């Protein structure tokens, strides 16, 4: 069968499974809708968390970024996994014991303040929308390349599917769909990786093949260092970023991960405190399978890419070059008129423009793998994008119906009305996300720094201090959050939007890039909050008792609204 | 809380914080230490085809992260029982 038929088949079957699961696990109560009734087993929750976390960016873009950045790309690998250690050790068990539905719930109750709750709601909605727009775009790209439908039609189909199971099923539907999506996406990621590792190093485990020998007896990474060196690039295994910037970016990504509302909320869905701890461990195992494979794929892809295009006459170019040229993601300009493709570091001699987003999608074609593997990668990319989009939409709808309406504006509504508002909220959010996917603002890539920076500079310190300090009061927490958010946002806006021409190391504060500035914002948040809280009065006794209670596991009921 | 005396709760919390600090020290050492600050020095050593610092940054730190969480789960479950604050 040809690639197109196989892709339709795989995508069709997986979509049918997702919809079937959504119908089977419809939500009946707000507890079902917000936290899946609090009854999800830790392994299932770990898988769902992993699918929720690994977005179109992890699946499609990450290996490509590393393939071109080499060692510098390590910030994403460490940053997006190390955050789970912080989650497991510092946040998940205590938030589970606290036993409410959302992050703003915790901030609002712990800091006995509706202002603090409102700041948290605004951050949660902003961070989630930033993210979700990128997911819908990812869906569109996969559809347009593999199913050759219009990119906008692709976004509409994606919207319809997410709408169906997020609006109907709530957290319960999403969680069980995500378990299925995890299986699809990890299978789709591993199969080509194993094939390519076998072809290049004879070792079926990509993590080992990565450090293995190629057919001519040299180590793969040494060969790669040699290849890129010959073309004038810096060595693959050595960095170009200064250590302080590597440090700041990694920390901002780790802390940002631990502060993202759609990740934190997953730990409200398990039955016990013990399960929250374990479920973070399972989540990281499932994530690590992909994250330790990605750098291997990156190295394989870079070697393959150089081998198959460097100095090859254009007339003999492999077919994937031509098919990706049609999408505009690869282009060739014969600057020296020799009819061959030069791929080198020097800007004036380089003739190939290769978009890093295509590395994972094109990899099976580059390595000449069978058609069904290519079709599988398309289904996997869609699973990654849809699962993350659904999780984010749920956070948005919960923020609106629970935090904004029930807890702030309309406290009198019944549970049934609240559930209705949650569904309306999800429906509106799907439409807004779809609109952003079809008309992407030009700055989608830039705002990712925003999402992590803001989560790192706002939620993370507020929650940590709320648990580990009984003395932290509302004045301190609000002052800290506002300082952290304002400075981080100002720094990013200044370098990304106001003066993008100044965005280089000599103009940065201490040589820290906007991507890493969340780290500075976080430190300032902690500092300001500590000073302000010492100058103002201690929190009420009831709040100090609450902090004492969340520190011990016994007595955790299922999450509830009261 | 009421069924526990506050001294026991205090001791439990202290032991908990101590454990977390130890684990975070390892977390810091493998990622920021081996993967970033000491990477050039470690790159002089080899692990099969990997330079050691590069391996920590792209593989090793992630394996250690997974191990840390499960050590935490195991030690905390034990600690919960010792201080009689475990869930049924």
Task: Describe the protein.
The complex is a heterodimer of chains A (562) and B (88). Helices cover 72% and strands 2% of the residues of chain A. The model of chain A has no long low-confidence stretch (mean pLDDT 82). The longest helix of chain A is centred in the N-terminal third of the chain and has 51 residues, at 151-201. In chain A, helix 7 (114-147) crosses helix 8. Chain A is mostly helical. Helices cover 76% and strands 5% of the residues of chain B. Chain B has 3 helices and 2 strands. In chain B, strands 1-2 form a two-stranded antiparallel sheet. In chain B, helix 1 (6-37) runs antiparallel to helix 3 (52-82). At the A-B interface, helix 5, helix 10, helix 11, helix 13 and helix 22 of A face helix 1, strand 2 and helix 3 of B.
What's the gist of this structure?
Chain A has 562 residues and is mainly α.
Label this structure with key terms.
heterodimer; A: 562 residues; two-stranded antiparallel ribbon; 22 helices; 4 strands; 72% helix; B: 88 residues; mainly alpha; 5% strand
Helices, strands, pairings?
The complex is a heterodimer of chains A (562) and B (88).
Chain A: H1 3-24, H2 30-35, H3 42-53, H4 56-69, H5 74-98, H6 103-110, H7 114-147, H8 151-201, H9 206-209, H10 220-230, H11 243-259, H12 261-264, H13 273-309, E1 312-313, H14 319-326, E2 330-332, E3 340-341, E4 352-354, H15 358-366, H16 371-409, H17 415-438, H18 444-457, H19 459-468, H20 474-498, H21 517-535, H22 541-550
Helix pairs in contact in A: 1-8, 1-16, 3-8, 3-13, 3-16, 4-13, 4-15, 4-16, 5-11, 5-13, 6-7, 6-19, 7-8, 7-16, 7-17, 7-18, 8-13, 8-16, 8-17, 10-13, 11-18, 11-21, 13-15, 15-16, 16-17, 18-20, 18-21, 19-20, 19-21, 20-21
Chain B: H1 6-37, H2 39-42, E1 46-47, E2 50-51, H3 52-82
Antiparallel strand pairs in B: 1-2
Helix pairs in contact in B: 1-3
